[in-house]
Amino acid sequence: MKNDKKGNQYRVNEQIRARExxxxxxxxxxxxxxxxxxxxxxxxxxxxxxxxxxxxxxxCRIIDYSKFLYQQKKRAKEMKAKQVKQEVKxxxxxxxxxxxxYNFKLKHAKEFLEEGNKVRAYVFFRGRSILFKxxxxxLLLRFxxxxxxxxxxxxxxxxxxxxxxxxxxxxxxxxxxxxxQKVDRExxxxxxxxxxxxxxxxxxxxxxxIFANVKGxxxxxxxxxxxxxxx
Length: 231
Fold this sequence. Notes:
It contains 6 helices and 8 strands; from the N terminus they run ββαββαβαβαββαα. The radius of gyration is 26 Å and the shape is rod-shaped. 36% of the residues lie in helices and 23% in strands. The N and C termini lie far apart (76 Å). 22% of the residues are buried. It has a 4-stranded mixed β-sheet. Strands 5-6-8-7 form a 4-stranded mixed β-sheet, with helices on one face. Residues 1-7, 174-178 and 196-215 have low confidence and may be disordered. A hairpin with a 2-residue loop joins β1 and β2 (28-33). By secondary structure, it is α/β, with parallel strands linked by helices.
């Protein structure tokens, strides 16, 4: 076994103090006394490596430690390569945008969100067109509803000067760039997949409507429906 240059990131062999461990491998998992697991590792000429210390019992693999570190480094590199840089893409409307132009911009917004980018849509009111600000609000709310499958609303339409903005983020988990901490956590979970039942999974993404967790969303949607009914 080579020394861990990362400062003993994992407990190995006699460093493992638990009385029993769960051994995971391609064939499944087995709970056994730590001493027995150490004997098995020695017989195979490899190491007992603790990969999930917080599980009960701790999860370990019987593997050459140098090979294990190489696999971890390779997996981290692959995950980093898959990360997508998140950008903010702008979509501009006029208060009286026609249907063809609307659908054209809606298509681009879907592509932006699918690629993991945020979308900032806005209506620009030129001169006296500011009188149509309610029409611009309805347009942006319709835009958000049409993108419900692809994104979630970060901020409902709000007027800033001569522009009314709507902000949206991609809905699909894992598309946007992840923090290094999250990448490391996912790497460890992948290595200890048989021990995942001992750890609570993150709460599932809310399946409610697109304005379910946005303050004032219900009132605005009700207003939108009333406006559509009047038409």
